[in-house]
């Protein structure tokens, strides 16, 4: 960890060694279960390490044209795409670069079917098994009124000609037990259509590389599903690829007091780790404790004008001083892909802590990156 204190802040640092450890687990799962695993770029799109990831995984999955292009150009293996609604202006390019195309509705399927099949693409429809396994409503595609996936009541068997796959994505940071019970719901509602499919995509949200994840149960359920329906199974984890493999290093700019000591950082929750506000959650901090667990408690916050730009309350063994560096953990995922330049905040640099211990700066940002997004 000491090597991280050498970077100029703010800076995302991805740990190559930890990334490889995750990838080795995922490759073993794929080999033992007989499935294919794709990188979900919506969680982690650091394409500087795509050649490395491509040595372990089968390709990438995208939520639209730009992500699809990134995976196609930088990894060059299987390229899958799902969009809630495709842009007609972009679809001609999608069919050029994507191997698998999943549709969110039968209306979309009918609109683009001819173009996709003429280009020789394998097409699927996203289904909604209407079985919630999580409490985060904002991330629950099975919530009432969800726009994602076709429910059984709206499923049109008569339009399946040319369709080769079913796709569902219902999980978020969950263990294999959530997948197992979801598969029961999938079979109950859509089991009649599974024997005519060539592939089924189990989506993402599988926290496979988490320490307590039951990988044996995952392997067993995939093997049983494959044997029962004779289909290729795909998984598309995002977080699991880079889980606990990255950091955001920040510096203390000032310390103020208003009922609690507040340390203002050059890293912002609103700009650089928006899931802290959106999820919400309290990111882990190296050598930081729960409030009042250690002698000195501070509220860590960004320097933007947003009153709610607060990362969380943490305690420390020693008082913080201006210029101190802090290391937020598990910051590879849903950080770089979601950050922004609100208030003219500079985007954090991106660095790679290489397996040999050397720190390599991948990208630095400046005023131009802020200005070029505006007009």
Automatic annotation (TrEMBL):
- Keyword Lipoprotein listed? The answer is no
Instruction: Please state what class of enzyme this protein is.
Output: lyase
- InterPro entries with a match to the protein in the record: Ala_racemase/Decarboxylase_C, De-COase2_C, Nsp_de-COase, PLP-binding_barrel
Report the cofactors. pyridoxal 5'-phosphate
Q: Which domain of life is it from?
A: Bacteria
MF terms per GO, please? diaminopimelate decarboxylase activity
Binding sites annotated in the UniProt record for substrate:
239, 275
Q: Tell me which residues make up the Orn/DAP/Arg decarboxylase 2 C-terminal domain.
A: 11-331
Q: What keywords sit in the KW lines?
A: Decarboxylase, Lyase, Pyridoxal phosphate, Spermidine biosynthesis
Q: What is its EC number?
A: 4.1.1.96
The protein's matches in Pfam families, at most eight in alphabetical order, are given as: Orn_DAP_Arg_deC (PF00278)
Picking any one GO biological process from the record gives: spermidine biosynthetic process
The record, for CDD domains, names:
PLPDE_III_CANSDC (cd06829)
List, alphabetically, the Gene3D superfamilies matched: Alanine racemase, Lyase, Ornithine Decarboxylase, Chain A, domain 1
Which PANTHER family is this protein grouped with? CARBOXYNORSPERMIDINE_CARBOXYSPERMIDINE DECARBOXYLASE, DIAMINOPIMELATE DECARBOXYLASE
NCBIfam families associated with the record: nspC
Name under which the protein is recorded: Carboxynorspermidine/carboxyspermidine decarboxylase
Gene encoding the protein: nspC
């Amino acid at each position: 960890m000491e090597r991280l204190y050498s970077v100029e802040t703010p800076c995302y640092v991805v740990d190559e060694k930890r990334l490889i450890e995750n990838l080795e687990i995922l490759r073993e799962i794929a080999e033992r279960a007989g499935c294919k695993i794709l990188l979900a770029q919506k969680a982690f799109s650091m394409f500087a390490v795509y050649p490395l990831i491509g040595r372990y995984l089968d390709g990438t999955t995208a939520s639209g044209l730009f992500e699809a292009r990134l995976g196609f150009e930088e990894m060059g293996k299987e390229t899958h795409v799902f969009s809630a609604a495709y842009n007609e202006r972009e679809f001609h390019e999608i069919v050029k670069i994507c191997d698998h195309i999943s549709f969110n509705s039968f209306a979309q399927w009918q609109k683009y079917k001819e173009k996709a099949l003429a280009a020789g693409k394998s097409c699927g429809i996203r289904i909604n098994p209407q079985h919630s396994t999580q409490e985060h409503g904002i991330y629950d595609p099975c919530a009432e009124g969800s726009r994602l996936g076709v429910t059984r009541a709206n499923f049109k068997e008569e339009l399946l000609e040319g369709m080769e796959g079913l796709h569902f994505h219902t999980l978020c940071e969950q263990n294999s037990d959530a997948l197992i019970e979801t598969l029961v719901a999938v079979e109950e509602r859509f089991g009649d259509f599974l024997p005519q499919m060539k592939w089924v995509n189990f989506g993402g949200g599988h926290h496979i590389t988490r320490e307590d994840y039951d990988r044996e149960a995952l392997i067993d359920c995939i093997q049983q599903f494959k044997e029962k329906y004779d289909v290729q199974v795909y998984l598309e984890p995002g977080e699991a690829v880079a889980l606990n493999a990255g950091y955001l290093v920040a510096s203390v700019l000032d310390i103020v007091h208003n009922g609690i000591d507040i340390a203002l950082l050059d890293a912002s929750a609103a700009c650089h780790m928006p899931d802290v506000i959106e999820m919400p959650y309290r990111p882990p901090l190296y050598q930081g404790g729960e409030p009042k667990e250690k002698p000195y408690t501070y509220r860590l916050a960004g320097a933007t004008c947003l009153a709610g730009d607060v990362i969380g309350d943490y305690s420390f063994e020693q008082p913080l001083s201006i210029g101190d560096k802090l290391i937020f953990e598990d910051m590879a995922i849903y950080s770089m892909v979601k950050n922004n330049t609100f208030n003219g905040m500079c985007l954090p640099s991106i660095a790679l802590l290489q397996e040999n211990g050397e720190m390599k700066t991948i990208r630095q940002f400046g005023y131009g990156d802020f200005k070029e997004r505006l007009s």
